[in-house]
Amino acid sequence: MSYVSNRVLKINVGFLLADGPGHSHETTFDVPEIRVADDLTLAYVRGSMRLSRTKEGILLQGQLDVGIRGECYRCLDPVTQNVTLELEELYLYPPQPGAELVVDDTAILDLAPLLRDEALIVASRGWLCQVDCKGLCQNCGTNLNHAACDCAVEDIDPRLAQLKKLLK
Ligand SMILES: [Zn+2]
Ligand SMILES: [Zn+2]
To answer: Which regions of the chain are under pLDDT 70?
Structure first.
């Protein structure tokens, strides 16, 4: 699998910093499969954002549609969750020590850490591959969406199994 480099998420805002407070710039994204961070791959990033120069730095506002790659929490099959991220964040300039979102000394605003934070919040809620995902067999691990297994027929409550033994 080849990914788009996450360098496309690094936006040079040198011209905006030079223009001074009150100026803004619209930027659009239409990016295919991209590895944002080691723990986050997005199937796509689409949308537009407004970057505005303020006294504190660059205010980023916009909506991005992203496809978050992950897995179904019940059966672990790969799933892409389509979500719209509402973004409104201030990137500090000059960069402040300890702040995560800053425009660095080379006038680069990196969207990756922000996308990662937002996407991982959504991902942490977990999702299913389908509303009625059958999950994995607790006994043999078969993915019951794709195949049946023999233990499924013997799927009796352990307390009932105990009772059944007593009755014999
Ligand atoms: Zn599933
Ligand atoms: Zn089974």
So the answer is: 1, 152-168
125 and 155 in a single domain? The answer is no
| Domain membership of residue 142 as a residue range | 134-168
Give yes or no: residues 48 and 121 share one domain.
yes
- Which ligand sits closest to the CA of 155? 2
Q: What is the pLDDT of residues 21-33, one digit of tens each?
A: 999 999 999 999 9
- Degrees to nearest 5, angle at CA 115 with 52 and 39: 155
Per-residue pLDDT, 1:
60
* pLDDT at residue 131, rounded to an integer: 93
114 in the same domain as 167: no
Question: In this structure, which ligand is nearest to the CA of 145?
Answer: 1
Nearest ligand by distance to the CA of 73: 1
How many other β-carbons are positioned within 10 Å of the β-carbon of residue 155?
A: 10
Please give all residues whose CB falls under 5 A of ion ligand 1, grouped by chain where several chains appear. 72, 74-75, 129, 133
Asked, for residue 143, whether it belongs to a domain, the answer is: yes
Q: What's residue 124's pLDDT?
A: 87
So what's the pLDDT on residue 154? 54
Helix (H, G, I), strand (E, B) or coil at 160: helix
Q: Spell out where 13-77 has E strands.
A: 24-37, 40-53, 57-71
